[in-house]
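Example record for the data management plan.
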Amino acid sequence: MRENTPPRYQNIRGIKGSILRAYSAMIDIIVVFLILVMLVTLGVALFSVLNDLYEALRNLRHEIAIQTLVESILSVFVLIELFRSFTDYLEFHRLRLRVITEVAIVFVLRDVFIGLYSHSLDWRDLLAFSFLIGVLIAARIASVFFTPPMD
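Corresponding structural encoding:
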């Protein structure tokens, strides 16, 4: 049996077990491919941040160059959190609610920071984002207190 096959598939015999183990192996291959794609994307994003940094330093008085740099940096943080969720799936063979809520919180905070920096959010947007962040934080806390047992 493969060592990284989930334990729930190791004890199943016959055709059903073979199919489930093949399914698990195929999912692992797909996730590893997605991780490689994420690594390339992260490298391109880092190059983009460096390019935006060069443009911002060259045009210190242009607010658009600095705003683009801020957006690029915040987007890299979102990519890093997504990358972590893929690697956690590969390790644990499940998507953990804690990690998914952290990704969502970082993504929402990215939009809030961009909106605040560009002065494009009104009070209704801030109220909606605050409510959404509150719900995500509550889900994050609940995921810590109600962690399912590992297989």
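Summary line stored alongside the record: The mean pLDDT is 81.
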